[in-house]
Amino acid sequence: MKIIIINGPNLNLLGKREPEIYGNSSFENYFSELQFRFKEVQLEYFQSNIEGEIISKLQEVGFSYDGVVLNAAAYTHTSVGIGDAVKAIETPVVEVHISNTFKREDYRHISYISPVAKGVILGFGLLGYELAIRSFLKD
């Protein structure tokens, strides 16, 4: 099984940025834990602060991978293009958010990805990525 985690803008600052919301661990450290925990899965990781690069990566993997775990971060609430890319590909996508976006600003209650995603996981911190991976293993 081949799954990619795609993270959007500012998630490269995990462990440094707003630790009260996002925690103290870098994503790279957490990704190593996921690779150890899910040895039977070929896990890949991609992060970009650039909307077009996220769309290009979705198109690149969207017909050959078994799953995409997508945290588009702020682009979730603004990018029709990322939503359209998720809709256009065959690979199922699980939308993940570290924080509970419904406890935050009103504009974060809108997602252009949720309507075309396999499912949405939010508010469980980094555990959301593990839950998303497990959802693909159950299929």
Automatic annotation (TrEMBL):
Where along this sequence does the record place binding of substrate? 71, 77, 84, 98-99, 108
In the UniProt entry, which residues are flagged as the active site?
22, 97
**Site feature location: Transition state stabilizer:** 17
| Record keywords, A-Z | Amino-acid biosynthesis, Aromatic amino acid biosynthesis, Lyase
Q: Which GO terms describe its molecular function?
A: 3-dehydroquinate dehydratase activity
What PANTHER family does this protein map onto? Answer: CATABOLIC 3-DEHYDROQUINASE
- Family in the record: Belongs to the type-II 3-dehydroquinase family.
What is this protein called in UniProt? Answer: 3-dehydroquinate dehydratase
What organism is this sequence from? Zeaxanthinibacter enoshimensis
